[in-house]
Amino acid sequence: MQLRSIAVTGALSAVAVGMVVGHEAKAIRPAAVTSAAQAAELRLSPAVVVARRPTITEILDLILGDAGDRKVASSAATGAALPSGSEEARIAALLRQRTPDATRANRVAAALVREGRRANIGATLLVGVLLTENPDLEPRATSSVGARGLMQVMPFHAGNWGCASGDLFDIDANICHGVQILADNLKHSRNLPAALQRYNGCVRGTNTPDCYRYAGKVYRSARRTAVGLEGKVTATTPFSSLD
After folding, report:
1. Structural contact between residues 202 and 216, judged by C-beta atoms closer than 8 angstroms
2. How many whole angstroms separate alpha carbon 171 and alpha carbon 150?
3. Is residue 119 within 8 Å of residue 179, measured between CB atoms?
4. Residue 148 pairs with which residues in a beta bridge?
5. pLDDT tens across 78-130, in order?
6. Is 67 exposed, middle or buried (0-12, 13-18, 19+ CB in 10 A)?
């Protein structure tokens, strides 16, 4: 823990001056200050401020941004219902068509929205990627080439993207890795289809000749996600150029 010294100078008035040491603040008041001249001569020794550990609530504020996101994350983690009408609740309702585990659907939906906001990627696109990679929402799925979890992340990515855990079978960690990988691909690709193909490992198309169809599959899944359970369009998508 780092100590930081702060020199406090200036005239003292009748108001007590706080000196923070550790977690407590103690007031210091001079016995008597009879004149402005005496007050001007009086100086305090440097005060030592000891930084304290942030609380869990403060950490969540930094990570999630506001109390609304914190409430959603807490609800998903405990299996409670997501806030009615929220983007998370809408996505969770659609994901429950793929799994009977409502708690899993809630947790996946909350993670997709949270990580999407963090990376500035729309959750609709992320749902399209996830359902293309893992339509059964199986967190422990492993592909023939070793890709793991919901968003089929390769093991060599584990721990490299600032996620809280390197466990790619963990729902939140896997989605964090997947979203960050896609965000990086978007930065280094000429357009969205190219970024999606790169996510799929389709750079030259030599290993999997039909891998260029991957972006179209993601787009179709994203469009279906944008339509609610009653057939009403609940969100718009920028995916009109590829079918």
Report:
1. no
2. 7
3. yes
4. 142, 153
5. 455 788 888 899 999 999 999 999 999 999 999 999 999 999 999 989 999 99
6. exposed
